[in-house]
Structures are given as C-alpha cells and as structure tokens.
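Researcher: We plan to redesign the surface later, but first we want a full-length starting point. Tokens attached.
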C-alpha cells in the first residue's frame, strides 16, 4: 500500500507545516507501508521586491523540514514560476502523476493526532472496492449537515461558527485513540485538506478540471461527482474513522511574517473562477458517466 500526502504550502504557513511534520515523525514509527510526502512551496503569491524577508529564508527552512521526513519518500518542490498558484493546481498534478494507491490531502492549518496516519492506512486495507473516501471525525461545525462526521463528544455543542473557531485545537487532539471503527456513511461530506484519504482510482475518475483554476470548491466538485457515480451504479463509498479527531487551527492561526512579507491575495478571484465553472464541469462529468 502506497500513500501520497499532498500539501500546497505558502511561505507564511511554513511554521505550522513544520509542526505537522513533527507530528508525522512521531507517528512514523508505527508505519510499515510506503509514504510519499509531496509538498510544493508556492513562492508566487508574494511580492518579494516589497518584502523584508528574502525568499531564500523560506527555501532554507523548507529544506530543513525535509529532513524530518527521512522515513518517507520526499518530493519537496519550490515553485516560483507560476506553475502552482493554489491547492487545486497541486492536487490536480498529483492526480495526474501519482503511482500511489491513495492520496491524502492536507491543509497546513490542520491539527491531528500522531497515530492518525497509521490508523487511516490500516483502515483502507479493510475496503474491498476501488472507489472510496476515508475521513477522520472532527468537532461540531457551523451547521448540522456536518454532524455525520462529528465526533460524539462534540455533538452536545451548538452548531455555530463561533464555537468552531474558538475551540482549542491542542485540547481537541488530546482525546485518546481507544476504539477505532470504520463506519460507512450515507452521504459524501468532507473538507478538502482535512486528512481525507481518497483512492487514487476515484480521483482519477473525477479529476479536478482545469477550469476550476488554482483554488476553490475542488472538494465540493468531488462530492457532487461521487453522488453522480452512486446514482449511476458505481460502488463508491465514504467512510468515517470513528475515534479519531482532526480540527482546523483558528485560535492560534497567526502569521508571524505579516510585517515582513507583501502577500498577493488572489483567493477571492480564484474562488470566483472555480465557483463560476462548477456547474458546467459537473454537467460534463454527468455526460461522460
């Protein structure tokens, strides 16, 4: 079993990716299967001429972090040539080029338990069909539609954005992993970089269309495609790994480089392009299927 962890990284996110790399290192002593860490440091969204820190500072730190992955096959890429402008670009390229059995998308602001990679890989070995998604559980989100992947400990909390953004991510991941259960769910619900393990064959079937651009709604597109596949008789299934918890880091998501980097914020523009092409691409997928 080969798993490829795919990460799109901006310079100001590098410290949290270092923390994640240490979490993975702690958990690596359980891992027997081949892991590929595929991460691109995107230097394209910074005006370096107006920044106080040079790009080499981040390149050097990126190179140092790679040493924490001495237990895996590394693909650490530095891009300053506008080939990778967002996570869609990174994930799309991985889908087209990987030889791994599974792809795991990871956002740099995600908190997770060190053992999670081991458990999610071992769980995938229990699945005997080609098209699947495995998602960890998370805390209560901003509306009840997410309850299907919410850990039972947090179902008593009110579903609102305020709770979701103010919870302590360090405290969340101290929940001991005691009993693991791989449970199928009756819908498709996940956040793109929330440690979801997706079968490569599923992603190669859905792809991330070029027209969705660099960033935005790729997770929604895959979910919608999965619904289409299900309706057409494909054996595609999402599972929840009960007993594990991941959470986005809102409370401590600071940017220590804010005064030193002149960031180019194209997020809204990228998202608008992706959302504008979503329905067209879904119809294309329906026609093909």
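Model: Full-length starting sequence:
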């Amino acid at each position: 079993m080969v798993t490829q962890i795919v990460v799109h990284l901006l310079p100001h996110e590098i410290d949290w990716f270092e923390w994640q790399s240490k979490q993975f290192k702690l958990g690596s002593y359980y891992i027997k299967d081949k892991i590929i860490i595929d991460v691109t440091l995107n230097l394209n969204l910074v005006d370096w001429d107006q920044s106080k820190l040079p790009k080499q500072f981040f390149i050097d730190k990126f190179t140092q972090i790679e040493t924490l992955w001495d237990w895996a096959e590394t693909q650490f890429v530095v891009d300053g040539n506008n080939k990778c402008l967002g996570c869609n670009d990174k994930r799309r390229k991985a889908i087209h080029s990987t030889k791994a059995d599974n792809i795991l998308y990871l956002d740099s602001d995600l908190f997770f338990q060190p053992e999670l990679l081991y458990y999610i890989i071992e769980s995938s070995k229990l699945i005997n069909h080609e098209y699947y998604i495995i998602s960890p559980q998370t805390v209560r989100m901003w509306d009840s539609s997410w309850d299907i992947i919410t850990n039972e400990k947090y179902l008593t909390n009110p579903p609102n954005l305020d709770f979701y953004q103010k919870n302590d991510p360090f405290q969340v991941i101290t929940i001991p992993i005691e009993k693991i259960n791989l449970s199928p769910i009756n819908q498709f619900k996940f956040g793109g970089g929330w440690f979801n393990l997706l079968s490569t064959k599923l992603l190669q079937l859905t792809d991330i269309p070029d027209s969705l651009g660099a960033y935005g709604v790729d997770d929604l597109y895959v979910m919608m495609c999965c619904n289409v596949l299900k309706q057409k008789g494909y054996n595609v299934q999402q599972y929840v790994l009960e007993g594990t918890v991941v959470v986005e880091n809102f409370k401590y998501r600071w940017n220590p480089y804010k005064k030193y980097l002149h960031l180019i914020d194209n997020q809204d523009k990228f998202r608008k392009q992706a959302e504008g092409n979503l329905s067209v691409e879904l119809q294309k997928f329906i026609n093909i299927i």
